[in-house]
Design a protein that fits this description.
Blueprint: E1 8-13, E2 22-27, E3 30-37, E4 50-53, E5 59-62, E6 68-71, E7 83-87, E8 93-97, E9 103-106, E10 114-116, E11 121-124, E12 130-131, E13 133-138, E14 141-152, E15 159-164, E16 167-171, H1 184-189, E17 196-199, E18 204-208, E19 214-218, E20 224-230, E21 235-241, E22 256-258, E23 266-268, E24 272-274, H2 277-281, E25 289-291, E26 301-309, E27 315-317, H3 322-330, E28 335-341, E29 345-350, E30 356-358, E31 364-370, H4 372-412, E32 426-429, E33 432-435, H5 453-459, H6 483-503, E34 507-509, E35 518-520, E36 526-528, E37 535-537, E38 543-545, H7 558-563, E39 565-567, H8 568-584, H9 600-609, H10 627-640, H11 651-658, H12 681-685
Parallel strand pairs: 22-30
Antiparallel strand pairs: 1-2, 2-3, 4-5, 5-6, 7-8, 8-9, 10-19, 11-12, 11-18, 13-14, 14-15, 15-16, 17-18, 19-20, 20-21, 22-23, 24-25, 26-30, 26-31, 27-29, 28-29, 28-31, 32-33, 34-37, 35-36, 38-39
């Protein structure tokens, strides 16, 4: 049986290296990818079986002797006669009552090891009952294995888990309404931002995967496999969790912290020491760590540990201010740690901290309660270090001064050239003449190194054009590029912005993204430059205000140019203008359409909204073969230049759109500057001059 759009197939199949036969549902473009199995624990041993509807309305699998090896097992008060079975385009196999159309049974409510779009797993927080995925025993046997997957919402936060015979094997960290805080990748790509966690009035919490062409599988080794179908290359793009040893639950034991980039990967949190030093030295960290000094409730302090996957068993509290978290934890003697997330609020821990991991540059700050004596000893160590560094600095300074004095004394005995080249002397090469002016007058340039004209001439082979890097001022510094190069530049700039906003240890808002601040290396890789007016955001900052608007007109977001408000989304706006400029090959501030009285953004909106996006593309690169990708980039650019910051995607989502991780794009609204409102050329000239606001910095 094939679904209407031929996405999924219900069929008999045999796994690799076995002749056992099963009834299952697979992905039509990749039939080896099985998402559901009916008779997973009762295989058919030959080819004489059948799948059919029984007289009582059940879907059954029969062997060669007509013995039922699997059934939907409908439990109804009266026998069901008229039933129909259908496989939907979502991959859901449904059994319906023919007359009423009521659903009697569906495979989505009886999952095996895989989740697809539209499917849900759940837990009831009142009863603890779960709908779980169960992995295959191995690659050749789809029978119920030892690993299960599902959500755990009993502690107050929702987490994805993989269990091995009931013991935690991997967890995602808490869901904050946008992402799972324990998966490092989502801080970069934001791929899980459109996943869904919902609840109903009966205490059920549901998790659904993102609405993309993908599958999530709990495999026989306990890994959570995320597979996204790459339509361009007709293959699966695969990501697996755990990704490294530190992702394995409790790798470093209680009060231990894991860092996959260090060796050894485990260490005790500050204020703690290994329970078993001998085991710890052998690389067996399961026994964990213990406190060096016991807590005294009134005198304790908190140690900040940055960029963490927060421990398991977090207890959330809906506080909207981070300072309240510290006060609440300090006032509760059983609270041993706290953290804050802007979407969740406060999270508290008591008793123990387990499955803690250090990320690199992303994550949540964890505040661990320590005895006051830990901070006293830390101050003493810092004092010794400061004294040692100061003494060393003084000694080195004395040695350097003595060496400098001897060098100066030796140089003083040598005669200096009063003139390097005489006035009017000329170098001629390749018909290029350079007149050297008199340089007998010495200029005081302080502590900067001095280079004579002769040095410069020799270093540049008499200023030969082969050594010319480019021309400034009024000279051109760019080339006309083909579409592939332009697309790579667009993607490269987005990765650079992602680094500034997310990957960098400091969160940086550039505030002046424009073509002249993007440099290209010899391989045409873009590099973002000129951070003269960039601002660093603190961890708890989402936006800032300024009374001095600095930047370049034509690239400023409306809220920044009009009100002085800037954020990550104002950089996204500038990037959107850049995308459109790269596509059309013209600058926003120098473009005006006389016929329609529209700016560059306005023309992009008009042509895209009328289904004529290819007309916006620079004529020299416009091609029907790449039209879909070009028009998609125009749509992404228009999403970036939306009037309100909340309507613009984050740079993570932009990169996911460019990489086709997000397949379906939202429809942009008409940009605020899409029309000038007049055909008067004077309106245009107000935007003709592009300049940066100059200020000392």
């Amino acid at each position: 049986m094939v679904s209407a759009k031929q996405n999924y197939i219900l069929r008999f199949f045999s796994p690799p290296n076995t002749t056992n036969r099963y009834v299952g549902i697979s992905f039509s473009l990749s039939e080896e990818t099985v998402i559901w199995v009916a008779n997973r624990d009762t295989p058919l041993k030959d080819s004489s079986g059948a799948a059919t509807l029984s007289k009582d309305g059940n879907l059954v699998v029969l062997d060669g002797t007509n013995r039922t090896v699997w059934s939907t097992n409908l439990t109804t008060t009266s026998p069901v006669i008229n039933s129909i079975v259908q496989i939907l385009d979502t991959g859901n196999l449904v059994l319906r009552e023919e007359d009423s159309g009521d659903t009697l049974w569906e495979s989505f409510s009886h999952p095996t090891d895989a989740m697809v779009q539209g499917m849900r797993i759940s837990q009831n927080v009142n009863t603890g009952k779960q709908v779980l995925l169960t992995a295959w025993k191995n690659e050749t046997d789809p029978g119920m294995g030892s690993f299960t997957g599902g959500i755990d919402a009993m502690s107050g936060t929702v987490q994805l888990f993989s269990w091995n015979d009931g013991r935690p094997h991997w967890r995602s960290g808490p869901w904050n309404g946008q992402i799972f805080l324990g998966i490092k990748d989502v801080f970069y790509a934001y791929l899980d931002a459109i996943a869904q966690v919902n609840s109903d009035g009966a205490g059920n919490i549901f998790f659904s995967p993102p609405p993309i062409d993908g599958i999530v599988i709990w495999n026989s080794s306990g890994s959570v496999i995320r597979k996204v179908w790459n339509k361009m290359e007709k293959r699966w793009d695969v990501v697996a969790y755990p990704k490294n040893e530190c992702d394995v639950y409790g790798k470093c034991g209680v009060f231990g912290s894991c860092n996959a980039l260090e060796s050894p990967i485990c260490r005790c949190l500050r204020g703690f020491e290994p329970v078993n030093e001998e085991e710890w030295g052998r690389g067996n960290w399961t026994s964990g760590c213990r406190r060096r000094n016991q807590l005294r409730c009134g005198d304790d302090g908190f140690e900040r540990v940055q960029y963490m996957k927060v421990p398991d068993f977090a207890k959330p509290s809906s506080s909207s201010v981070q300072d309240e978290c510290a006060a609440l934890c300090r006032g509760n003697c059983s609270c041993i740690a706290y953290a804050y997330d802007s979407y969740i609020g406060c999270m508290f821990w008591s008793d123990t901290l387990i499955d803690t991991q250090e990320f690199d540059g992303v994550g949540v700050d964890l505040y661990v309660r320590l005895s006051a004596s830990e901070f006293d000893s830390h101050k003493e160590r810092k004092l010794y270090i400061i004294i040692g560094v100061a003494v060393g600095f003084v000694c080195i300074s004395v040695v350097m001064f003595i060496a400098w004095w001897f060098i100066v004394k030796r140089k003083g005995s040598k005669a200096q050239d009063s003139s390097i080249l005489e006035a009017g002397q000329m170098f001629t090469m390749d018909s290029t003449a350079i007149v050297l002016k008199d340089e007998t007058k010495e200029v005081n340039i302080g502590d900067l190194p001095k280079f004579t004209f002769k040095m410069l001439a020799n270093a540049t082979n008499q200023f030969h054009e082969d050594n010319l890097l480019g021309r400034g001022g009024f000279g051109p510094v760019y080339m006309l590029l083909d579409w592939n190069m332009r697309y790579n530049i667009i993607e490269g700039i987005s990765r650079g912005i992602l680094y500034l906003h997310r990957d960098s240890r400091l969160r940086i808002i550039h505030r002046d993204l424009k073509p002249s601040n993007v440099l290209l290396d010899q391989d045409w890789n873009p590099k973002i430059s000129d951070f003269g007016i960039a601002r660093i955001f603190r961890d708890n900052e989402d936006q800032c205000n300024t009374a001095r608007v600095m930047g370049t007109y034509g690239y400023m977001a409306p809220e920044y140019g009009m009100e002085g408000r800037f954020s990550e989304k104002s950089d996204v706006y500038s990037f959107g203008v850049l995308i459109l400029e790269i596509i059309i090959g013209k600058k926003n501030t120098h473009y005006f359409n006389d016929e329609w009285s529209l700016s560059l953004i306005g023309c992009a909106w008009k042509m895209w909204s009328e289904g004529n996006g290819l007309s916006f593309v620079e004529e020299s690169i416009a091609s029907n073969e790449t039209e879909e990708e070009m028009v998609r980039c125009i749509q992404i650019g228009l999403l970036c230049v939306q009037e309100h910051p909340k309507d613009r995607p984050s740079i993570e989502m932009v990169l996911s759109m460019l990489n086709h991780d997000i397949v379906e794009l939202a429809a942009p609204k008409q940009p605020v500057l899409s029309e000038n409102g007049s055909t008067d050329q004077n309106v245009y000239t107000s935007y003709e001059l592009t300049h940066s606001v100059l200020d000392g910095r």
